[in-house]
Amino acid sequence: MAGAAVKAKPASTIAEERELTDGFHLVIDALKLNGINTIYGVPGIPITDLGRMAQAAGMRVISFRHEQHAGNAAAIAGFLTKKPGICLTVSAPGFLNGLTALANATTNCFPMILISGSSEREIVDLQQGDYEELDQLAIAKPLCKAAFRVLHAADIGIGVARAIRAAVSGRPGGVYLDLPAKLFSQVMDAEAGAKSLVKVIDPAPAQLPAPSAVKRALDVLKGAKRPLIILGKGAAYAQADDQIRTLVEKSGVPFLPMSMAKGLLPDTHPQCAGAARSTVLKEADVVMLIGARLNWLLSHGKGKTWGEPGSKKFIQIDIEPKEMDSNVEVVAPLVGDIGSCVSALLDGIDGKWPTPAADWVGAVKARKEENIAKMAPRLMKNSVPMDFHGALGALRTVIKERPDAILVNEGANTLDLARGVIDMYQPRKRLDVGTWGVMGIGMGFAVAAAIETGKPVLAVEGDSAFGFSGMEVETICRYNLPVCVVVFNNDGIYRGTDVNSAGGSDPATTVFVKDARYDMMMEAFGGVGVHVTTPEELSRAVNKAMDSGKPTLINAVIDPAAGTESGRIGNLNPQSVVRKK
Ligand code: ADP
Ligand code: MG
To answer: CB of 319 closer than 6 A to ligand 1?
Structure first.
């Protein structure tokens, strides 16, 4: 066409006339627009500039040493805040490192978004051997709630909105967002870019239970002689603390907190049945589950733990309808969000609670007091070397005196025993290995807990568990976080006493270097390292650390012979009965 003779303007003039934006800015703007102000990640190609620019735009960008820990941090940030935690990784290997955390978040119903840079689609799809070539989207899909890829800068707003909604609505979980390298430098008109962003309205809408389901649940509860309420981490996540407390206290029903629901009501509450766990599971006739699944952690709702077959009726409150009848029949499914469901129960009963039978409440109380009394002297033991109970007795007092501190806990014996010994007093203060019983969450959880809450963090770690994320003590020092790590050092996995039965010079498979000084790792990065051998020293060191708020690692020497194989879950550990000589 003749009109083509109109001369094109030089690029510089266009830029002056139109303000431009690009993929980098749009990702940052989309997150900020949705109130997401923190990113956990590891920089590298192609997202190095994204991290830099996010920081420049006022976001908190926490760089880790390994993506798995950044991912765990994002996941627990999601649990603590009900907003999706963001983990940002490089392509292929970085993405795969983050994937364990994404899968773990999904398993635990923690909302997080793993954002990974990826290589060029054209090359990846033709398998032509790009730098860090991997079909990340396909790999992520089965391990998360939803997975999306954005190819055009104009779609970033929608992509981020979909990811947020998928992470926090319904049953929360992990979401993968794939951002190919080319996307970041795609340029578009700034005004059109701003218009393309989406502020997600009501990302986790209330889900009200049906009135008939509420009535059914109340009828079952009213018919109970020996009722029990089990609180799970879904109840902690829901942040319906007042309604839950009212339900428990008005109904007078004994309650059992799952590990991460401890503190929703204080473990010292007169109705807490934590110390009478086996009794209440065996004897209860009606069990109301609030945000807790009948998975392996509750022996699937059947078998010896649960007493006579058919002796239980289950009421279950959960946002996920598919969870009902997952292991045993649920006679009163109550599907909805916990806040709405518990409020509906409170309205439905209208203050007319039946009193649970005095003999049931009395029996639970008696068993609980007996067990607490039995454990008490073990917690006072000041022996050297320390056993787990002696050391945990000291930490139990620390948390009692500092109930707003956050306790992170992982290990085998260190986990199982701490869960029973250390009472929690406030909601969402205990963060641990969760549904998978996974090792390696320690430092990631500790970092995010400190960043998200500003509270002091006490991470109680088995020496083996600590090893999975130990390098992140540098991250703790770099950001000067108020984290006190206590390593229960018994020289190995489960115990430090195993020997190589072949008699060679290699150590046994479960033992570590004897007398290792984990405290020196913290000193290497400018933090405080302390070596302790008695409960008194431990107590002093932890209190000092928590008063000072300085990054501290306490190497607590535990008797190498003190642990048991696989802690409390030895039954899950197959052992050969055929040993070759
Ligand atoms: P625990 O390990 O403490 O027993 P689980 O992780 O097994 O807890 O169970 C948590 C349950 O809570 C999940 O089934 C999840 O669907 C549910 N859940 C999470 N958030 C909510 C919510 N806001 N309302 C209702 N149910 C929820
Ligand atoms: Mg150990």
So the answer is: yes
What's the pLDDT band for 212 if we cut at 50, 70, 90?
A: very high
Q: How far apart are CA 116 and CA 96, in angstroms?
A: 10
d(CA 446, CA 448): 6
Average pLDDT value for residue range 275-287: 97
**Closest ligand 1 atom number to CA of residue 204:** 23
Tell me the average pLDDT across 302-320: 96
Separation CA 3–CA 444 (nearest Å): 62
Question: Strand, helix or coil at 272?
Answer: strand
Atom from ligand 1 closest to the CA of residue 234: 12
The span from the CA of 321 to the CA of 319, in Å, is 6
How close is the Cα of 346 to the center of ligand 1, in Å? 20
Paired strand residues for 179: 117
Question: Does the beta carbon of 496 lie inside 6 Å of ligand 1?
Answer: no
Q: Cα–Cα distance between 186 and 184 in angstroms, integer?
A: 6
Q: Which ligand is nearest to the CA of 414?
A: 2
171 Cβ inside 6 Å of ligand 1: yes
Q: Which CATH architecture has domain 211-366?
A: 3-Layer(aba) Sandwich (3.40)
CA–CA separation, 429 and 425 (whole Å): 8
Note the ligand closest to the C-alpha atom of 236. 1
* Residues 170, 68, 161, 179, CA torsion sign: negative
Nearest-atom index, ligand 1, CA of 291: 12
User: Which residues are CB-neighbours of 158 under 8 A, at least 6 positions away?
Assistant: 196, 198
Residue 108 alpha carbon, nearest atom of ligand 1: 6
Amino acid at the residue 128: Q
Residue 36 contacts residue 88 (beta carbons within 8 Å) = no
| Ligand 1 within 6 A of CB of 165 | no
**Chain centroid offset of residue 111 CA:** 10
pLDDT at 581 over 80: no
Contact 186, 152 (CB under 8 A): yes
Question: Is the CB–ligand 1 distance for residue 82 below 6 Å?
Answer: no
Question: What fold, for 380-498+506-567?
Answer: Rossmann fold (3.40.50)
Q: What is the distance between the alpha carbons of residues 185 and 180, in angstroms, rounded to a whole number?
A: 10
pLDDT in tens, 79-97: 999 999 999 999 999 999 9
Query: Is 415 within 8 Å of 486 (Cβ atoms)?
Result: no
Assign a CATH topology to domain 18-196: Rossmann fold (3.40.50)
User: Residue 236: CB within 6 Å of ligand 1?
Assistant: no
Side-by-side strand order, sheet with 286-290: 255-257, 227-231, 286-290, 313-318, 332-335
167 class by beta-carbon count within 10 Å (0-12 exposed, 13-18 middle, 19+ buried): buried
432 Cβ below 6 A of ligand 1: no
Domain extents in the chain: 18-196, 211-366, 380-498+506-567
Closest ligand 1 atom, CA of 261? 3
Query: Phi first, then psi: what are they for 480, rounded to 5°?
Result: 50, 55
pTM of the model: 0.96
